[in-house]
Write a structure and sequence with these properties.
Blueprint: E1 8-9, E2 13-21, E3 25-32, E4 37-44, H1 46-49, H2 52-66, E5 76-82, E6 85-91, E7 96-97, H3 98-105, H4 110-129, E8 132-133, E9 142-144, E10 150-152, E11 159-160, H5 181-184, H6 191-207, H7 217-226, H8 232-235, H9 241-250, H10 262-280, H11 286-291, H12 296-299, H13 304-307, H14 312-332, E12 354-356, E13 364-367, E14 392-393, H15 400-403, E15 409-419, E16 421-427, E17 433-440, E18 454-461, E19 465-469, E20 477-486, E21 495-496, E22 498-504
Antiparallel strand pairs: 1-2, 2-3, 3-4, 4-6, 5-6, 7-9, 8-11, 9-10, 12-22, 13-15, 14-21, 15-20, 16-19, 16-22, 17-18, 17-20
Length: about 500
């Protein structure tokens, strides 16, 4: 087929270089002499043209992709035949495949992997909306353009859900490294099969390798049928529980437990990306571009500076104003300021004979042992950043904690190494919730309430700056937990802007 380089198809498309080849066809970089633009040409092998099934599959690809117009799908420009050689003309994407990128870099940054998964899922959502299943989702079929954006290509074995034939039961199509269990067994497939394959692609982006290896394609396919993929958090501990849960659901063998459709998957991937970016405090690669497209629901998880892009000069100006204000305040106000993490602010009165316990920004952690162990963890540090303008919130409970079957949910402070706190102040813009204060000694954080915890206080956070006396009996504890047991009347969540611990001052 390399001898075809230099020929001109239909008097219009000049084949300049071969850039890919498969069992059915060869792909060329070509030039459209009529419109003077670079294109990609997929040319069916001459011997395949005599096979009516293969010929119909090739034509079906052209018809299928021609229906799809999406920024993350490589578009079809034209189709035709030249001397009984059918061909399809695609937009030309300059760049590498996602597989090339994984081979070059190994595991990708977590947020970048999620960003690519979102772009691929959005492309699949467009195809599924047209009742077209890709059936061969793999990183080799994802092109990355010069800006880093993903574009899905090669719908060569795509099938309309309205079509019959050409995909009889018992025939396995697709690449076995990414094949869904139902596809490996030769069953009819729908969009859930593409979701499984995308899950395997996401796993590979996060780990740098596919989950299963075997002596041959059949052994790998059977592992997809019989074995769960390895625990992503064991292989890559920095992956959040939220991302791990999305991946587990994408690759569930049971169709009843796997995502039923792409829109619900996209919503969870978007939330996971926002969470990962918030945890990192920044974004990398394509994640930066995808974050700008997130819906408000997901963007609220991001810190302010990632939700709002301000011009550099404006930021510099704001910093200059802030510095000027600090200088003025420092001259006019007595220096009764407790210095610690965060931007700092003038403290309210400290109880007589006590002082604020100094804790670092990373000392606050959400606590949800009765749920998914994730309660807006990216917001946890806000309760110790000494800024009343930021806050940690619980998840939304439309029917209260009781309706969710929970006795409570909370957030704790790590007062390392340990301290005998005598009072706690809880600041909230939304008073009225009830809380029990627990403490635990140095060591592992107790996994449930009340086991391992000691009750040291309780009360209703009835004001915006509620102080609760703590009865530690002089015992020094490392962890102090605010365990919210009842939401404020009419509220669907609880919100805490600051938590302060006080200890006695030595005489």
């Amino acid at each position: 087929m390399s001898t075809l380089v230099g020929m001109q198809l239909s008097g219009r498309y000049r084949l300049d270089a071969q850039i890919g080849a498969g069992g059915m066809s060869t792909v060329y970089k070509a030039f459209d002499v009529n419109l003077e633009r670079r294109v990609a040409i997929k040319l069916l092998h001459r011997e395949m043209s005599a096979d009516s099934d293969q010929l119909e599959r090739f034509r079906r690809e052209a018809r299928a992709v021609a229906q799809l117009s999406h920024p993350h799908i490589v578009g079809v420009i034209d189709a035709g035949e030249d001397e009984n050689r059918p061909y399809i003309v695609f937009e030309y994407v300059e760049g590498e495949t996602l597989k090339d990128r994984i081979r070059r870099l190994g595991r990708l940054p977590v947020d970048e992997a999620l960003a690519y998964a979102i772009e691929i899922a959005r492309a699949l959502g467009c195809a599924h909306a047209h009742e077209i299943v890709h059936r061969d989702v793999k990183p080799q079929n994802v092109l990355l353009d010069p800006e880093g954006s993903a574009k899905v290509t090669d719908f060569g074995i795509a099938r309309s859900l309205r079509d019959d034939g050409l995909t009889a039961d018992g025939r396995v199509l697709g690449t076995t490294d990414y094949v869904s269990p139902e596809q490996a067994l030769g069953h009819d497939v729908d969009g859930q099969s593409d979701i499984y394959s995308l899950g395997i692609v996401l796993y590979e982006m996060l780990t740098g390798d596919v989950p299963f290896h075997g002596e041959n394609q059949i052994s790998v396919a059977m592992k997809h049928v019989r074995e769960d993929i390895p625990d992503i958090q064991r292989i890559r501990p920095e992956v959040s529980a939220t991302t791990a849960a999305v991946l587990d659901r994408m690759t569930d063998k049971d169709l009843a437990h796997r995502y039923a459709d792409v829109p619900s998957l996209i919503a969870d991937l978007e939330d996971a990306l926002a969470l990962e970016a918030a945890r990192q405090g920044t974004s990398t690669g394509e994640a930066t571009a995808v974050i700008r497209t997130l819906p408000a629901r997901a963007r609220r998880r991001l810190p302010f500076r990632m939700r709002h892009s301000l011009p550099v000069l404006v930021i510099i100006g704001l910093i200059a104003v802030a510095v000027a204000i600090v200088v003025i305040v420092s001259r006019e106000v007595p220096p009764r300021v407790e210095r610690g993490t965060g931007p700092g602010r003038i403290e309210q009165s400290t109880p007589t004979g006590t002082k604020v316990v100094s804790v670092p920004r990373g000392s606050a952690h959400d606590y949800d042992p009765l749920g998914d162990n994730e309660e807006h963890s990216e917001e946890s540090s806000r309760v110790v950043d000494r800024d009343d303008g930021t806050a940690w919130t619980t998840e939304s409970y439309q029917d209260g904690l009781e309706g969710a079957g929970k006795s409570g949910v909370g957030i704790y402070i790590d007062a390392k190494p340990k301290v005998a706190a005598v009072q706690m102040q809880i600041d909230t813009p939304q008073p009225g919730f009830k809380a029990t204060i627990y403490a635990a000694p140095p060591g592992a954080v107790p996994k449930s309430v009340p086991e391992g915890w000691t009750k040291v206080g309780a009360g209703t956070v009835s004001t915006s700056n509620k102080r609760i006396k703590l009865d530690t009996g002089g015992t020094e504890y490392r962890y102090y937990l605010v365990w919210i047991t009842k939401l404020a009347p009419g509220s669907t969540n609880a919100e805490i802007s600051e938590i302060r611990l006080f200890q006695e001052v030595a005489a």
